[in-house]
Amino acid sequence: MTMRQALASFEGRRVFVTGHTGFKGSWLSLLLTRAGADVMGYSLAPEALPNHFELLGLAGCMHHVVGDVTDGSNLKKIMTDFQPEYVFHLAAQALVKHSYSDPASTFATNVMGSLHLLDAVRHVESVRSLVYITSDKCYENVEWIWGYRESDALGGHDPYSASKAAAEILFSAYARSYFANRFDLGIASARAGNVIGGGDWARDRIIPDCVRSIETGQPIKLRNPSATRPWQHVLEPLSGYLLLAANLRKDPGRFFGAWNFGPNSDEVLTVLEVARTMVDKIGIGSIEIGGASPAQHEANLLQLNCDKAHQFLGWKPRWSVEKTLESTASWYSAWMSGQYMTSVSEAQIRDYFQEF
What we know:
It contains 13 helices and 13 strands. The chain is of the alpha/beta class. The longest helix has 21 residues, at about 105-125.
């Protein structure tokens, strides 16, 4: 199935998205609405001001429900009333640093919230395709130089990583206990690395931290400048999720299981290289190295092996890290200059998908 065919398969279909007000969720909701889907979003209200969801005015072009995935009865009611055909589960507490300060809420959202989502799908028979997003940090990271495969051991040094590994175990249990005999339901978990792009204002992420520092005239402070991350534009894994969901709908048994979506191994940059590139492309800003040492463990190396997605889905990353950073910097430059951001985000979507 081509990417164009996958996008066309959502036209006129009911799609349920948890975490739609977040960074990845708002980009996914924009993609789905522009593909002609009837989208229902279920999420907490946006935390940051500004935020991508409100800048795009998405509440006016989709069903927007403010709700918590830890409220299982409400989640099940909303999904039951909507009767979706596709479900994308993105709702999460997504920050490693926050997981150290508040592990209870991290596990409540990432584990119990995921359980409630799976249980809602169990009771809503209209669902034909579920893409259940966790994280590359679900793997037991021993910081080897090759990428983790979908069959590698799960684990987690920090509460966030552990919660994502636990969410994967939940997925496996529900798949075997409740979904094995639903032959018309395709389900898969998706694991992606660090995503960057316009519209992210989360705390303790390199791109939003760069933008905030540049905007206020402060130096960008780097705690761990030599750390490498699997940098990819937000549209890269989202294209994988969409392609996976469409294939799950068409051939549930063949595409069941876990899938990695990450950049090519030769596209890895350090945090310092990313910050320098952002300063260079935006045209202003400075960098300060040697702040306080991280109080908690931070991974220095984590990569994914995406051979499975390459071979069986025909998915591959489309943008180089240079193109990714250029598009990210241009998005924030447009925002700082007061441009209409819906048009900017839509233009980047067209730019990305025309390469398929």
